[in-house]
Amino acid sequence: MQDILGADRTAAARIGDLQCHLDSLRSGLAISRDALTHDPVTGLANKAALLSHLNGIFDDKAAAGTSALLVFRVEQLRKFAESHAAGSDEKTAKRLATIFRQSVKKNDLVARTGPDLFCLLLCDVTREIAAGIARRVADKVAEMPFPFLDRELPAGFLTLTAGVSMTDSATTPVTLYEQADQALAYAAETGIALRIYSAEVAERAGRTYRGGAAA
Questions:
Q1: Residue 140 pLDDT exceeds 60
Q2: Which CATH number characterizes residue 140's domain?
Q3: Helices (H), the chain
């Protein structure tokens, strides 16, 4: 009897150890998965997570309706951060992330795809609504001061330039992102705050590509 009870206790202890090991593995996998899909500074989705989310939308575009991808560049942020110690722009990035989060609905997605690039994926919207949201976010950023090291960047120091693309003009998630990026480049080149992807933007992108290839 004592031998049986002892064996049971040993087996129970081993099962407990195995459970702890499994829990540790699950925790490690969750942390690894989070690191692969989220920006480490702001906790926002990264580009990989954004494209993955877009895959779901393109898998059933009819059910999802028309969605808009807004890509914002925070002007001055990268240049200013590069002249200071690494990580000095983190508080500013977190404050910007809060503004973007507060600007969307629960089912929309906010992502950070670069040091000075933020994206909004808006579900079931028109071009007019998407443009209106982009302008409101830009106005809010322009009106706010931002923390940077031991001082604040004054209101108006940081501004946004935005490019917008719509799922009804793209065939894949990558194409949608590229169209928004082309619209962003066009906006920056022409000195305007917002550009929506169009035939004009596509023609400009084609000219740029052909010029680069020729060089």
A1: yes
A2: 3.30.70.270
A3: 2-37, 47-59, 61-64, 77-82, 90-101, 127-143, 173-190, 199-214
